[in-house]
């Protein structure tokens, strides 16, 4: 279970904390429990969690909102699910403004909490998978895309791209080996539907391939018949 997601539960009510710990462990998560804001911050620093379940009402000077603010101020980007006994709009707004990703009112069904945890983790992992490396560069095979200069490279060969070509390649670099349908690409790049007979996408795909293969390199931007396009090696 070394690859289990680590969840930090910050809850001062022992019965609720125990209930959450048992249920989450049963579902395969690794769980740390903290009953005060100061201990939560220490736990997050010493063993960074993948997700925090955070009660707003905590004893002491550091309540849940302050814990959330400090985590965000420290640069922590893990999902934070806030719990509260009050279903007031002002409380929800305060939690979201402090940096929380989602909000759940007590009492709650464990199944709903679990569904929200799974959704937050999926969203966070998807967002991270779409981020470039620390140097701002996406890499696939011998193809790289520098998001700072907006140049692409095939090996050492530099490729200049138009704005649309760059956006199209960036979309594929963010989703390598994934088949993207025509509708998905059109929505992501152009933001609206072209008439069904429009071949604008096919034109841009053709232009992009011409740039990427100008040095005789093997094709990486593949057509998947009846499905769409994918950035993958020819043998995939």
Structure description:
The protein is of the alpha/beta class and 236 residues long. It contains 8 helices and 11 strands. The protein has helices at residues 14-26, 37-46, 64-73, 89-98, 110-129, 163-174, 182-189, 200-212, and strands at residues 6-10, 30-34, 51-55, 80-84, 102-105, 137-140, 143-146, 152-154, 157-159, 221-224, 228-231. A 5-stranded parallel sheet has the order 2-1-3-4-5, sandwiched between helices. A 4-stranded antiparallel sheet has the order 6-7-8-9, covered by helices on one side. Strands 10-11 form a two-stranded antiparallel sheet. A hairpin with a 5-residue loop joins strand 7 and strand 8 (152-154). Helix 2 packs parallel to helix 3 and helix 6 crosses helix 8. The chain is elongated and about 65 Å long. The chain starts with 5 loop residues before the first strand and ends in a 5-residue tail after the last strand.
Write the layout of secondary structure elements.
Blueprint: E1 6-10, H1 14-26, E2 30-34, H2 37-46, E3 51-55, H3 64-73, E4 80-84, H4 89-98, E5 102-105, H5 110-129, E6 137-140, E7 143-146, E8 152-154, E9 157-159, H6 163-174, H7 182-189, H8 200-212, E10 221-224, E11 228-231
Parallel strand pairs: 1-2, 1-3, 3-4, 4-5
Antiparallel strand pairs: 6-7, 7-8, 8-9, 10-11
Helix pairs in contact: 2-3, 6-8
């Amino acid at each position: 279970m070394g690859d289990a997601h680590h969840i930090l539960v910050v809850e001062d009510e022992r019965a609720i904390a125990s209930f959450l710990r048992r249920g989450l462990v049963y579902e395969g998560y690794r769980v740390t429990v903290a009953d005060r804001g100061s201990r939560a911050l220490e736990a997050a620093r010493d063993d960074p969690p993948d997700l925090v379940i955070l009660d707003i009402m905590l004893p002491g000077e550091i309540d849940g909102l302050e814990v959330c603010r400090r985590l965000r101020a420290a640069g922590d980007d893990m999902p934070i699910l806030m719990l509260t006994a009050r279903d007031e709009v002002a409380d929800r707004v305060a939690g979201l403004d402090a940096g929380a990703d989602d909000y759940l009112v007590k009492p709650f069904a464990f199944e709903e909490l679990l569904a929200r945890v799974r959704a937050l983790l999926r969203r966070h992992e998807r967002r991270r998978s779409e981020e470039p490396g620390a140097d701002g560069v996406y890499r696939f095979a011998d193809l790289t895309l520098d998001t700072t200069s907006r140049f692409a490279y095939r090996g050492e060969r530099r490729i200049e791209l138009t704005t649309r070509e760059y956006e199209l390649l960036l979309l594929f670099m963010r989703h390598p080996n994934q088949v993207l349908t025509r509708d998905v690409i059109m929505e992501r790049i152009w933001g609206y539907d072209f008439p069904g007979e429009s071949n604008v996408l096919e034109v841009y795909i053709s232009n992009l391939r011409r740039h990427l293969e100008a040095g005789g390199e093997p094709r990486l931007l593949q057509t998947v018949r009846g499905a769409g396009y994918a950035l993958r090696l020819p043998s995939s």
